[in-house]
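Exercise: predict the fold of this chain.
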Amino acid sequence: MRELSELIEVEDPAWPVLGEELRAASVPVEALAADAERGAAALLQTQVTVRSFLGAFVLHSGGAFVDDGWLRVYGSPAADNERRMPGIARVNSYPPVTVPDWRPGAGLVVAHDVLGGVFVVQGGPADQVGLPGQPGEVVYFAPDSLRWDALGAGYGAWLSWMLSGGTEEFYEGLRWPGWRDEVRELDGDRGLTLYPPLWSAEAHQDLAATSRSVVAMAELLDLERETSMQFDEADPGFLGAL
């Protein structure tokens, strides 16, 4: 296990570039203040250096509401922000003290979207972790298909794409007129459930006509897991602890 100094004292740290991308994003972004102590502890358990966007975000950011909160990217929030946005340590059930041999299962949950979609950095060979893609690749549990998809990019490229307006392309067909007004005031532990449900053909005939309710994200993820198991008779695995 690498010491904290090995993770922080590196050449070419990513934060100057990432911080500028957050400030110059093509979509509305609310970046929350980080807690230095929590950030250091999370970075040590995550075991990535701050040369990476992931390490830089974990250490220096309290999380970000991207595109008016449609996407929630997890960092290490200060105490007064934690009620609005859970930290990456909480979402991944990090142990309360650093444990050298501990790893977050099949992968690291790095973000959720308001519909219950889950972004995970894949943690190992597909035949061992049960997720598609390659180690280090971002994979997505889609709330409309209730299946995992490999996105073909690592965390840094994925986050840059989201900040540069990729949410519009990625969520094409999954938004309705006026969605910003429904989403922007929600805390990070809240999501939207639709009826008819998003995985039904009826919902996609007219998303604007669906009935939408604010629910706890934990409740939404549990519903997705249960429904996925009914459809495929396979547990999609860990979707995050909120």
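Check your answer against the key: DSSP finds ten helices and nine strands in the chain.
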